[in-house]
Amino acid sequence: MPECHTIPCLLSPWSEWSDCSVTCGKGMRTRQRMLKSAAELGDCNEELEQAEKCMLPECPIHCELTEWSQWSECNTSCGKGHMIRTRMIKIEPQFGGAACPETVQRSKCRVRKCLRGAGMEKRRWKEAR
């Protein structure tokens, strides 16, 4: 009798590719197939799973800001005025990421009451000296 040959692998067709492993950006997807012949009938070195990279639209990058600065001093030495505080943009939004909120805030301030005619009193006092 002629020498026995090993029986070739019988494999199922490849499955559909899986969904990408991520919802945005770079990921992986896989597909499989099954061994249809009994393993003991012969060696089967065929791959049963494949993987490949997949790329979806870029992930949104949201705005990032620094912490608020300290409030400035009141912009007047007497009466009503305002003070401000600021923060800087660390990362600009991209690919549909959340927009940056305000970076400057203004608040009312009131320093001691202004004296009426204070300038006139100073002049008179200087002249008196």
TrEMBL record:
GO terms for biological process: cell adhesion. Residues 63-114 form the Spondin-like TSP1 domain. Keywords: Disulfide bond, Glycoprotein, Signal. It comes from the Eukaryota. The keyword Signal applies. Pfam families: TSP1_spondin (PF19028), TSP_1 (PF00090). The keyword rRNA processing does not apply. GO terms for cellular component: extracellular matrix. This is SPON1 protein. The lineage of its organism: Eukaryota, Metazoa, Chordata, Craniata, Vertebrata. The gene is Spon1.
